[in-house]
Amino acid sequence: MPNATMTKFGYPHTAIRETELWSVQVRPKQPGFGSLVLVSKEPAQAFGGLSAAAFAELGTLVPQIEAALKAVTDYDRINYLMLMMVDPDVHFHVIPRHETPRDFAGLAFRDAGWPGPPALGEGPELDAAAIDSLKNEILRRWPSA
């Protein structure tokens, strides 16, 4: 059963990959090209409340996310933000950072916060077709297990 944070970020349409304890989803608002959310499926509202199994799955997912996003976006840096102020379920905003603009699916992506903190409210809002295109591109580049 999806939690409120997964649903807020468009689950199941935005889901790229799922494990038993995590959902990797396209972030509809794109402060950096290829922005994702990594949402825990556990009923925890604090990072320390996650199980050892959830932490173990992170150890597998993070390198896969970074490899796929590097291949798709050629990011310069990558940021993981765990804010949980509006959406209290444990989740990260995964923001590929890029000094120069990127183009994808007819959209221009400019990292408005570069070189400082990401500007989460900036960037294009992806429609369903652009979400599908980005999901497919990330899945195509997702490393084999």
UniProtKB/TrEMBL annotation:
Superkingdom in the source lineage: Bacteria
GO-annotated molecular function: methyltransferase activity
SUPFAM superfamilies cross-referenced by the UniProt entry: HIT-like
Classification via Gene3D superfamilies: HIT-like
ATP-binding is among the record's keywords: no
The keyword Protease is annotated on this UniProt entry: no
EC number: 2.1.1.-
A biological process from GO: methylation
Annotated keywords: Methyltransferase, Transferase
Source organism per UniProt: Methylopila henanensis
Record protein name field: HIT family protein
